Amino acid sequence: MHVFLTGGTGYVGSAVLRRLIDEGHRVTALVRSEASAAKVTAAGAVALHGEITDVAWLARRMADSDGAVHTAGPGDATAPAVDVAVVEAAREAFAGTGKPYVHTSGVWVYGSGEDITEQSPFAPMALLAWRPPIERDVLAIPTRTGIVVPGVVYGHGAGIPTVLTQGPRTASGALTLAGDGTQHWITVHVDDLADLYVRVLRHGRAGSYWIASDGENPSVRTLGEAASRAAGAGGAVAPETAEETARRLGGLAEGLLRDQSATGDRARSELGWKPSRPSLAEELEHGSYAPAGSAG
């Protein structure tokens, strides 16, 4: 299968690229720099230089593929414009073809809840209020669309969990939590997530959301204590108020303070997805986030 990929050098996109190549797919990865071109070429993809917001150009390149995966996320004020452009290009390239287009969302489009599913109502955090309207446009494309909804993505020592591992410590060495620590996070290892993207690309039903959750749903206190033990602080943690978290982390705090749990059962039952990597707590204490010399 020839797959067009955006974000191939990003945290999630690079994992998706590895998975696609490992499964024998041919990948064309959109890049903007020579450095990015070198990275995707080394991973086994064909680098394509271009501007992601040039809809007509992008649509022509997408149309040459058997399907597309969009993981690019600039993480700034340009993000809505990027998604709008890519969705419009996908519409021009794939409408009426039956080819798959896989789009990226995130669990913070949902509010707090103990059993979040793909049918849960949207309640996006302020920074992501632009997402649901664009995602409705994705589902309206007359082709085989799918929207992957990752939880807090972790693995390889990167991603949101560094908010804990690189956060401030008290004078006694206790690790500062995001909030009081009672809230739960939906989590997924980046390599398990990449497997889900490829499954949705190949077998996902048209017009479907797919929550990517390993089913662990750890509390932030549990995660903080694991990171504290790894850092030699004996599990000592220091909760903070929501206001303190907001002052320290800005708009990101709204998502980190949400109390969310999900099983990800739909992806398991319909696509045979089986997350198998170590949990985030294990990774924090013994794996890729643990300080050098403490990982076991």
Helical proportion, percent range: 25-40%
Mean pLDDT across the residues is 96
Largest pleated sheet: 7 strands, parallel
CA radius of gyration:
19 Å
Strand order of the largest sheet: 3-2-1-4-5-6-10
Order of helix and strand elements from N to C terminus: EHEHEHEHEHEEHEEHEHEHHHH
Uncertain segments: none
Oligomer: single chain
Overall shape: it is: globular
Structural class: alpha/beta
- In DSSP terms (H or I, runs of 4 or more residues), the helix count works out at 12
- Terminus-to-terminus distance: 39 Å
Summarize it.
The chain has 296 residues and is an alpha/beta fold.
General description of the model:
The chain has 296 residues and is of the alpha/beta class. The protein has twelve helices and eleven strands. The strands form three sheets. A seven-stranded parallel beta sheet has the order 3-2-1-4-5-6-10, sandwiched between helices. A two-stranded parallel sheet has the order 7-9. Strands 8-11 form a two-stranded parallel ribbon. It is globular and about 60 Å long. The protein starts with a strand and ends in a 10-residue tail after the last helix. The model has no long low-confidence stretch (mean pLDDT 96).
